[in-house]
Specification:
By secondary structure, this protein is of the alpha+beta class. It has 3 helices and 8 strands. Residues 2-113 form the VOC domain.
Amino acid sequence: MEILGTTLRICVDDLESAIVFYERVTGSQALRFDRGGVSVAAVGAFLLMSGPEAELEVLRKVAATVAVKDVDDAHTTLTAAGARIIAGPVATPVGRNLIAAHPDGSVFEYVDRKPAY
């Protein structure tokens, strides 16, 4: 599995003020979208999320997002290494993802930028 980078996931109460801070820190413009009732802004290596507490409670369980070259390859590698696939692979607005629990209990999202077949 080829890892291309990671994104830190941060749940915030005030998305607008968080965006201002992270745009200044990173020098990047926020890319905004909504997903399942949660407002999301990708700013540099940070993924800011704000929304109903019930939705955020689930999102907080995922430690980070790991960008990979191919989610199918990640699926194969993770499963062979003993990870438990919680969800996916599924299509997203920009590619595909899966969520995996590692044997130590940590949970990560793996994403690629390949269109769904």
